[in-house]
Amino acid sequence: MEQNMIHVLLADDEQIVRNGLKYIIDWEEAGFCICGEAGDGEEALSKIRSLQPELVLIDIRMPKLSGTELIEKAREEGYSGEFIILSGYSEFSYAQTAIRNGVAYYLTKPIDEEELALALKEIKRRILGRKDSTRSLEQYRQKAKPSVIADLLTGCNFNPALNYAEMGLLAPVYQAAACEWFSDQYHSYSFLDLLRVSNEKEDAFEHIVLDGHDVLLLKGTSALERFSRILRYYEDGPQKGSPLDGIFLVYGPSVTGLEKICDSYHACTELLGRRFFCDENQHVLSYDQLPESSASSAGLSSGTGQSYSEQLVNYIQSYNRREISETLNSLRTMLYNSGEDIRKIKYFLADIFLEIKSAILTRYKGIRIPFASNADILETIENKKYLYEILLFFSEQFEMIVSTIGNNSSDSVFDDIVYYIAHNYSQPLKLESMAPLFGYNSSYLGKLFAQKTGVSFNTYLDTLRVRRATKLLDETNLKVYEIASQVGYKNVDYFHQKFKKQMNMSPAEYRNRSIS
Predict the structure, then answer these.
(1) Which residues pair with 207 in a beta bridge?
(2) 31-45: per-residue pLDDT in tens?
(3) Given Cys at both, which of 38, 60, 105, 434 links 11, Cβ 3.0 to 4.6 Å?
């Protein structure tokens, strides 16, 4: 019952007066509750500070501090309660001082019961009216606060005219964080409970739901430090299957000034869209993991994709697992910095894989390689949620290809090189580009060729190409320029020259001779 009543402090240096005030009126029936007494001005000021009564009945003249001096000091310290001055003196000068300090009632002793009752009734009306106004204003603020916070986060409206301090939004430093769930399994859990964040004083952070995400606006150095301790828990990853394992958490940089909060939240929105780039069991992305705006990227052009597919085809055929791994890492870095839409990235990766599949099947027609159908490959890539999963699929497929096409009779790296040439003679092969695939420099590989085969690399390659050309001349009706292209000569005249040098006749003469 007391908590709904108006609290009153009685201040008079005479105990008999204070006792009389207690019984001159039925305080409870009038809606008041006496919360304390004071016998001098300093004690009265101390109790105003500690008890914060809504009404003080005070004698104008008291030891240590007069009533008017006490009222002035209380007002200077921000006290906004009501005063009724009691005095045996009726000098107007006292009344003037009291009125300047917001005292509406000046009652002379002996106190008239009816006069006091009327004063209390009016004061009660004023106090309750202020409470209702304060309560309504607070309710309005509470309703408006999420909208104000949302505006600050999104940068829609920073209004210097708003009293952000009254809303508890002023702080020396801020930081935005946001979370979403990996699945609906744990969505019923409270984000704040899972993070074990407490906000007992309601000044550490603000929590709202924005665009379907739980968003925290951290306020002040202590709040940021506590959040930093929470992040350290994620460094080794949460226990598998726990509710914390279901959270994906992002956070922006710390900023100073309400108008800069949107910069921190903007980083969060960017990070939420980059979950695709997380590593396995990674639950947190930080603003410092965003690609730099100045990061150079070749983009997802067809030329870039072709370059990667050609590199990987070469490393697969040379069984160079280290270079395969490094090329996939290079591909991941390029995609991370590309800033492209995830769907476009998946299409780009699908094109690379299908190019590799086509090249391998073309060059190893005599070997059954257990590739999935194109439709299944596209579906597999589309259904992967993370880039690392797609690249892991690539790695597994490349290992399968290496194992399938591997030169089983290989006793040395040189045998692998010869095997590689046998399946790639139609490509523009050069020592300079081929040697690094097998860990050699071109000069050494050229000497090794001469030592192992007795001829130069170019002579060996020309011999292989011409031999394959004779087979096509014998077994097909392809035109000579078509055969030249298929065995690796883009210039048909150059093909004629090489063919005649080895066979002592032109391709046409060779075909006619075979027919006859």
Answers:
(1) 216
(2) 999 999 999 999 999
(3) 38
